[in-house]
Structure formats: structure tokens, C-alpha cells
Design goal:
alpha+beta, about 40% helix, about 15% strand
């Protein structure tokens, strides 16, 4: 009874024919019966089984929480599909070599008509207006969730050692010049003067940069451009944040 073994082509043919004029296994809304058959199918049917593929994609579009809300009681797989000898009649319709040509053509036209209603965009078959609206809401919620997901921005903390020419260099002016450098993705932080030798001090200053926008080469180039104040620039430390 029912669809038989849904891991075989005969079983899938029975399912495909059964769904030619139906959206669901039982009634006009998804039920636990759809889940029982869906789990028995295990993977998407071949493209030539248009009705079964349409139904499979539709049931697959529901998440686990939604599936748990399906109405009905789960039964054995044998209780779903055509009963009382209807399955053997359908098999004969597909497999018999002596089938009436007119009936064969009528069957093909019926399948083709169902396929025309199931184009690349409409994966949900004969949904009523309420179901269609629910589908749109699920897709809109998913798109909004994706759009609102924060984008991870790679940043680094850099400490620079800026050395003057001699002990007569105005270190306050030197720091002002360094901090005057502005760039998208650059934020200057704390600084201090560190003694070197013979009364000379270096400026040690930190900054946070967005890796895709500001690199160490840019910083060194911009700082050494103040050649009246700066002798050299070294990277004292570099850490990913």
C-alpha cells in the first residue's frame, strides 16, 4: 500500500503521480504526514519528477520549529498515498508497454500542465493567499537578518617610535604634526616621551587602524614627510585586535 519504497524509482514515480493535483500529502496544509514522507524520500527527487521535486523543496523550506507545528499525527509510511490497489494501477500507467497511446499522451499533458505551473521561481505549488504571505514573511525575515548581521572589521593596534634629529627638536610640535595626520580608519591614542641618550627623547605614540584602510607604510611615509622634525620612524609593536 501507499508509495512503497521511496528509495526506488517506482516509489518516487508513485509519489510524483500522487502529487500531480495536490500540494500536500494530506489536505491543503502541511501536516505530519508530509514530514513522514519527506524523511522517507531523504533527498531531492530527480528534476524529471516535477511534482515530487516541487513538494520536496516546499517542505524543505520550513525550519525545524515550523515543522514541529505541523498538524496531524505521525503514522506509518504505508498509511500515506494511494490505497486499496491504486498503487498498482499507477505503476501500470508508467511501466506497461501495452498502454493505450491516447491515455499515455493524456498523462503526459497532465504532467506538463503541472510543470508549467511550477517555474523556477514558484517552488511552493498551489499555495493559498495566506500560505503565500507566510512564505514572503519568512523570506523577508531571513533577508533582514542577513542584512543586520554585523560585518567583522579587522583592526590592529600599532605603537610607533618617532625619533627627532637632536635634543633641540621641539617635541610638542613634533607630536602635533604626527597627530595632524588624518585618514579613514585611523585613530590616534596615548603617547609619551622616552629618553634615548644625550638629552634626546623619542615620541612613542599608539594608534588603532583598520587593516584594509591604513597600513604601516602609509604611516611611515606621512610621518617622515615632516623632515624638519623627524629623523626616523620604527614600529615598536603591532598587535591584531
Amino acid at each position: 500500500m501507499g508509495f512503497g519504497d521511496l528509495q526506488t524509482r517506482d516509489g518516487l514515480l508513485l509519489l510524483n503521480n500522487f502529487l500531480a493535483d495536490k500540494s500536500y500529502i494530506e489536505g491543503y496544509r502541511p501536516t505530519q504526514g508530509d514530514l513522514v514522507v519527506f524523511e522517507a524520500v531523504k533527498k531531492a527527487p530527480a528534476g524529471e519528477l516535477e511534482n515530487a521535486l516541487r513538494w520536496y523543496k516546499h517542505i524543505a523550506s520550513f525550519n525545524d520549529a515550523e515543522k514541529q507545528k505541523f498538524e496531524g499525527q505521525r503514522q506509518s509510511i504505508e498509511n500515506y498515498g494511494r490505497q486499496h490497489g491504486q498503487d498498482s494501477q499507477v505503476k501500470h500507467e508508467f511501466k506497461s508497454l501495452s498502454i493505450n497511446p491516447a491515455e499515455r499522451q493524456a498523462s503526459k499533458e497532465k504532467v506538463a500542465a503541472a510543470a508549467n505551473d511550477d517555474d523556477d521561481v514558484d517552488l511552493f505549488g498551489d499555495e493559498d493567499e495566506e500560505e503565500s504571505e507566510q512564505t514572503k514573511q519568512r523570506l523577508a525575515a531571513y533577508a533582514a537578518k542577513k542584512a543586520n548581521k554585523p560585518v567583522l572589521i579587522a583592526k590592529s593596534s600599532i605603537m610607533l617610535d618617532v625619533k627627532p634629529w637632536d635634543d633641540e627638536t621641539n617635541m610638542e610640535e613634533l607630536e602635533k604634526h604626527v597627530r595632524s595626520i588624518e585618514a579613514d580608519g585611523l585613530l590616534w591614542g596615548a603617547s609619551r616621551l622616552v629618553p634615548l641618550a644625550y638629552g634626546i627623547k623619542k615620541l612613542q605614540i599608539t594608534c588603532v587602524v583598520e587593516d584594509d584602510k591604513v597600513g604601516t607604510d602609509l604611516l611611515e611615509e606621512r610621518i617622515t614627510a615632516f623632515e624638519d622634525y623627524v629623523q626616523s620612524v620604527d614600529i615598536a609593536s603591532f598587535q591584531k585586535i
